[in-house]
Design goal:
The protein is an alpha+beta fold. It has eleven helices and 15 strands. It is 41% helix and 29% strand.
Length: 318
């Protein structure tokens, strides 16, 4: 326990650096990982285009006493070290009524330009954590004793990329010791490295901006517009690429694919905040591109962005 507190205490240094440069510490949220959800029966399986998709059922998972207790303990550790943690379970209960009102409203007003979000994307949009820490564990019982193997992985909620990982195993203990207490008290030599990688990630975000993806699409809308169409003497694809170059942090982005009707950008670095000091997410970044195309090329399009880091500009037309 002493080793774990010392390692997590390094998080205070992470927060201090982030606060000085970005104005506020990052928000984190613990969620059970997919392996734990699958092992405990908290997943849905669906078929789409011949592929089986597995999605976590977080609402049901957080009714599991062990998970709830583990997350409460970890939230407390993070709070003690200056990292604000969003409690999924508490937020879910508070927002139930608001979600029902929103669903009723969407049923009445939904337009063709809307794109349905997955449960995970809707969760990210609602709680908007900077960092997800996925946690899971396996219990190995022999007689009246057991050990617990646990894992934590920090994920950037915008890019979906892994930031840091830590695994550990508790000493052999009696089965009467609660799982939450065992996970909290588990000390590991890798925790210092875990915190160090969080620091490196925060430093990178401050210097190079958040990382998102942006997809542009032209549907069969009868306008005759495609990405080879010229406006002001330039192909539309070049106009969009030039805008990306001018509006990304340090001009960092890459074109994953491009055709007459589709352009996909990845590793798109966007500022933390816009010129008015508001938090910048994929939706706001794409809205700026949407306004640019309307004002400079007289083009209409739908901002159908999903989640925090997946920008979507669809149905571009005159």
């Amino acid at each position: 326990m002493k080793l774990l507190k010392i390692a997590l205490g390094a998080a205070a240094c992470v927060v201090s650096a982030f606060t000085l440069n970005a104005g506020a510490p990052p928000t984190i949220m613990f969620l059970p990982d997919k392996a734990w959800c699958n092992a405990n029966g908290y997943v849905d399986r669906s078929e789409h285009n011949g592929k089986t998709r597995i999605s976590e059922k977080y609402d049901e998972a957080f009714l599991n006493t062990d998970l709830k207790n583990v997350v409460v303990q970890l939230n407390g550790l993070m709070k003690d070290n200056g990292l604000p943690a969003k409690d999924y379970g508490a937020s879910s209960e508070i927002d139930d009524e608001e979600e029902m009102e929103e669903e009723a409203y969407n049923e009445d007003t939904q337009s063709g330009g809307e794109m349905e979000m997955t449960a995970y994307e809707a969760l990210m949009n609602k709680l908007r954590p900077d960092i997800l820490i996925r946690v899971g564990w396996d219990v190995n019982t022999v007689g009246f004793s057991r050990t617990i193997s646990y894992r934590m992985e920090a994920i950037d909620s915008y890019s979906g990329k892994s930031i840091a990982q830590v695994t550990g195993e508790t000493p052999t203990m009696k089965t009467t010791i609660p799982i939450a207490a065992a996970v909290k008290n588990a000390a590991t030599e890798h925790m210092g490295e875990f915190i160090g990688r969080l620091q490196e990630h925060f430093d990178d975000l401050q210097t190079n901006g958040r990382e998102i993806t942006v997809a542009c699409r032209i549907g069969n809308n009868g306008s005759g517009v495609n990405f080879n169409s010229e406006y002001n003497g330039k192909p539309l694809s070049t106009i969009i690429s030039d805008w990306m170059n001018d509006n990304t942090v340090n001009h960092v982005y890459s074109t994953r694919s491009s055709s007459r009707n589709r352009i996909n950008f990845e590793q798109v670095r966007i500022p933390f905040k816009d010129s008015a000091g508001r938090v910048m997410q994929a939706k706001e970044f794409v809205e700026q591109l949407q306004n640019y195309l309307r004002n400079n090329c007289n083009l209409k399009c739908e901002n159908t962005t999903k989640g925090l880091g997946a920008g979507r500009l669809y149905d571009i037309c005159e």
